[in-house]
Write a structure and sequence with these properties.
heterotrimer, A mainly alpha (about 325), B alpha/beta (about 325), C mainly alpha (about 280), B: about 325 residues, alpha/beta, Rossmann fold, 2 domains, 12 strands, about 25% strand, C: about 280 residues, mainly alpha, elongated
Chain lengths: ~325, ~325, ~280
């Protein structure tokens, strides 16, 4: 098992390398070149000033030297300073990260606790009304643009019914609320964003849970369990589910990148003060250091999600744990 | 002991309805090992599964018939009673032990589950461990103390099948159904398992229903044998009788197609012969021939074979054949 | 063989439904100028933000433009993006997948590593980053969606190749002196076609979703060119006073993507088992 983890970690190294390469390439793609990236000058600056800054920032050095410098900076999480307000990029990111993580973790929990029962029920009552209904729902779920759904829900609950706030993480009067009031305020602000964030994952994982359980129930060992006289309920929930959960749990870890990616959209829509919104604003204002920083961190989190998925897989499947 | 009467079962495969068994009847006597032999697809596994109603509703349907175990019709039992019988009075072991064991539970847990189900005891008390070990010793498992903590994938095929047998025997069943128990194993292991089964049968007074496609196994282990083809029984006799004088053309074809070697399977003149195969193919179960199901491939076919299915007739003592040309 | 596939196809009503919708949309896109009651860019500031009426069936936007016409013209954008982006992804993905699956060895490892690295990035953010550095316009959007979409397909094609490669007829063909090129394209490719087609169809739906999300954020198709996504941007801005701006373009996206998903899933059922039975 330890060997397995070590292997997965080693495998990550080329991926990390790849991240540095790709981000480096992307920076050099920008029309103004990396000069803009580091300096943030408008085109109005004279050629001479630009040349000076070029040599100052080492942009006239050969490309592999630049690349190496980039790698060294990434390792220290040094993304420079934001163009907008000059603050250190990494600081800005770390400020926003908790909000994003809160959103993502809650989404994952929601996905797990809702789609699993749906999937199981669909599998157990295959082809029933419930199953067919859920299939339809899932299809719609795959086809709907989440940002549109967000808009609709905002319309319905925010504007129309006025039940839920449609932006931010705190209400204006937050500091004046009691402790319980604060908690409730937070919850109210969380409901819509978490739901939207989880929506795509809900559809996908319901489908997947169903498929996984159905596949498991087709196996010979399920037949053996029945032949032993195990009651049908236990056959499904004890013998079957335990096996079906293996790929499902792994998939949860792999859903993280999807959540992070989607975060850019709905954090913006809901004015949620997270890393996604930061990234989006940075993109819109061409605040390249921040964009790079957010991009790299997002990639790291993806890798982390994959690693967690791999470790979880090893934990729940004895065939991996004991070779 | 176990009496199956006129069992008919249909299968659903890919949206089509297939005839799997038609009017199959048999009688498993106390303390005997009865073999059911036939090619793949002849319905023998279906027969085994039907006894304990192990065919899922989506896959097949029992149309008619009775399965009598000590006067109780297993097909009409309440769910509760059925659970008591399964693994309790009647156990079944399957062909591929690797896929038949749950990969995420330890061996000890899987075996003691049977105890918990049929002896109404709590799993995993220390007394339970002892009993599981004793059971594993009964099936000649090497190092049972280590095995109970292992997972199925850590064991060899032979060991896995022993585990299956142990699970099956854990509640002292009266009948053991063995569905091709050695087909997935190496030849050397096959013999070990068969020897084990015969020994256990004598020791515990079991009645065994052995399903196989291999006449060699039948010769080694079974006292009586049934030959099946396309969902029906075509011949039934004592083992030695069937080898000595096979009456149904299909049985004869099967025996003749076995490679010649010392023992009961050489030609009457004891000479080496070329491998003979039965011409034609096993019929498509969704499109069975009329009359005698074997007639398109039968070397002895006459017009009378085509319109109507022959009945099972007792040609010699305890030797039944479904063929109008036998005897 | 094609007849069997066709008949099976027709039996699944939902799939046919999806296909019909797609065909209708294609027609709408082509004859948009004939169909739209107004010029989609014609502004009429006096009549801005009007709810649906008999004159403007879906209402008007913040510059007084007729929503229905803009939605109709938006069909063109979606269709174009879907086809081109997926086209790019398929060509690159299939090619690399074939090479990877057929030759194996270091080429395979190299390609698969690249695929893994690319799959490391949350796709959407990768697209976002690239668009940020380039200019947001429809061509860049199509290119980027296509260029980020090929890794998944490569893996799929490679997997199919690996299973088909072992089959005897490839060995036989090579024994007869068949060149690698021909082996790949003439023999291997047709067998791999089925999952490619399915992925492509589903991929078009995905590409449309991505494009609309990008346009919504202002990073895709730029106004005044109407895209369902960028219409929704003003939908967000005027959410409390013009609900129609939020509802209809999104509905268009939903129906379109649903149609592609239905078609894709239907194709999967129709093509796969049949192919395997062959």
């Amino acid at each position: 098992m330890l060997e397995y983890i070590v292997r997965r970690l080693l495998f990550m190294i080329p991926l990390l390398l790849g991240i540095t390469i790709i981000t480096f390439v992307v920076v050099h793609l920008s029309p103004g070149g990396p000069a803009d990236m580091l300096i943030g000058l408008t085109p109005k600056v004279g050629a001479e000033a630009k040349a000076r800054l070029h040599s100052l920032y080492g942009l006239d050095k050969p490309i592999h030297v630049q690349y190496w410098a980039w790698v060294k900076r990434i390792v220290r999480f040094d993304f420079g300073e934001s163009f907008k307000d000059g603050r250190s990029v990494i600081t800005k990111i770390l400020e926003r990260l908790p909000a994003t993580l809160l959103l993502n973790i809650l989404s994952l929990l929601l996905i797990f606790f809702v789609s699993l029962p749906i999937g199981i029920m669909s599998a157990v009552k295959q082809d029933s009304f419930f199953d067919k209904g859920m299939t339809l729902f899932v299809f719609l779920g795959f086809s709907v643009p989440t940002f549109w759904l967000a808009l609709l829900l905002m319309l319905l609950f925010g504007v129309g019914l006025g039940w839920l706030p449609i932006s931010g993480i705190h209400s204006v009067n937050f500091p004046f609320l009691s402790f319980l009031g604060k908690i409730w305020d937070l919850i109210k602000h969380l409901i819509l964003p978490v739901f939207i964030s989880a929506f795509g994952g809900l559809a996908y994982l319901s489908r997947y849970s169903r498929a996984s359980l159905l596949e498991v129930l087709r196996q010979d060992y399920i037949r053996t369990a029945r032949a032993k006289g195990v009651p049908e309920k236990d056959v499904i929930y004890k013998h079957g589910l335990r096996n079906a959960l293996i790929p499902i749990v792994t998939l949860l870890g792999l859903s993280l990148p999807g959540l992070i990616g989607g975060g850019f959209i709905f954090e913006t829509i809901f004015a949620w003060p997270g890393m996604g919104r930061l990234g989006y604003q940075a993109v819109m204002s061409r605040d390249y250091p921040v964009v790079m920083g957010v991009g790299v961190i997002a990639a790291f989190l993806t890798l982390l999600g994959n690693l967690i998925a791999d470790i979880t897989y090893a934990l729940v499947d004895p065939r991996i744990r004991y070779r | 002991m176990l009496k199956i009467k006129d069992l008919s079962v249909d299968f659903y495969k890919g949206g089509k309805r297939i005839q799997a068994l038609r009017n199959v009847s048999l009688n498993l006597k106390r303390n005997e090992i009865l073999g059911i032999v036939g090619e793949s697809g002849c319905g023998k596994s279906t027969l085994a599964l039907s006894v304990l109603k192990l065919i899922p509703e989506r896959e097949g349907k029992i149309l008619s018939g009775e399965v009598l175990f000590k006067e109780e019709d297993l097909l009409k039992l309440s769910d509760e009673r059925l659970l008591e019988i399964r693994g309790g009075k009647i156990s079944i072991i399957f062909q591929d032990p690797f896929t038949s064991l749950n990969p995420v539970f330890r061996i000890g847990k899987q075996i003691s589950e049977s105890f918990a189900l049929h002896r109404k005891e709590e799993p995993f008390t220390s007394r339970m461990d002892e009993e599981v070990i004793r059971l594993l010793e009964l099936v000649k498992m090497p190092r049972p103390e280590d095995v109970i903590w292992s997972y199925p994938h850590q064991l060899s095929g032979g060991m896995q099948q022993r585990v299956m047998i142990a699970m099956a025997l854990s509640s002292n069943p009266e009948i053991l159904i063995a569905d091709e128990p050695t087909t997935a194993l190496d030849v050397t292991v096959q013999k070990e398992i068969l020897d084990l089964l015969t020994e256990l049968q004598k020791k515990l007074g079991l009645s065994i229903l052995l399903i196989t496609h291999d006449f060699g196994i039948v010769a080694q282990v079974c006292q009586r044998v049934l030959v099946m083809y396309a969902g029906i029984i075509v011949e039934e006799a004592f083992t030695h009788e069937i080898f000595r004088k096979p009456l149904h053309p299909y049985t004869r074809g099967l025996l003749e197609s076995l490679p010649s070697r010392k023992g009961p399977v050489s030609s009457p003149r004891g000479e080496k012969r070329r491998l003979k195969a039965i011409p034609g193919q096993v019929p498509d179960p969704s499109n069975l021939p009329s009359g005698c199901k074997f007639h398109p491939r039968c070397p002895m076919v006459i017009d009378g074979c085509k319109p109507e299915e022959p009945v099972l007739r007792e040609i010699a003592i305890n030797h039944w054949v479904r063929c109008i040309r036998a005897g | 063989m094609w007849k069997i596939i066709w008949r099976r196809f027709l039996r699944n009503r939902l799939t046919v439904f999806g296909a019909l919708i797609i065909l209708s949309l294609a027609v709408v896109a082509v004859i948009a100028p004939l169909l739209a009651p107004f010029d989609p860019n014609q502004q009429d500031v006096l009549h801005r933000l009007e709810p649906p009426s008999s004159k403007h069936l879906l209402g008007t936007d913040d510059l007084g433009r007729d929503l229905l016409s803009r939605v109709i013209y938006g069909t063109r954008v979606s269709l174009l993006v879907g086809l081109v982006a997926v086209g790019i992804a398929i060509i690159i993905g299939s090619l690399l997948g074939l090479l990877s699956g057929y030759f194996g060895g270091w080429l395979d490892t190299l390609i698969m590593r690249i695929v893994d690295i690319m799959l490391c990035f949350p796709t959407f953010f990768l697209i976002l980053m690239v668009i940020a550095f380039l200019e947001p316009n429809i061509w860049n959007v199509m290119a980027v969606i296509g260029l980020t979409g090929w890794p998944g397909l490569t893996r799929l094609v490679r997997g199919e190749c690996l299973s088909v490669r072992e089959r005897e007829f490839i060995q036989a063909a090579k024994a007869l002196g068949l060149s690698n090129m021909r082996a790949m394209f003439v023999h291997l490719l047709p067998n791999v076609m089925a999952p490619i087609l399915v992925t492509a169809t589903l991929g078009i739906g995905g590409a449309i979703l991505t494009e609309s999300a990008l346009s919504f954020l202002g990073l895709g198709v730029q106004p005044p060119t109407p895209s369902w996504g960028n219409i929704l941007t003003s939908g967000k801005d005027y959410i409390s006073i013009a609900w129609w701006l939020s509802l209809y373009p999104g509905l268009a996206i939903l129906v379109t993507v649903l149609a592609y998903n239905l078609l894709g899933e239907g194709l999967r059922d129709v093509l796969d088992p049949k192919m395997m039975a062959e």
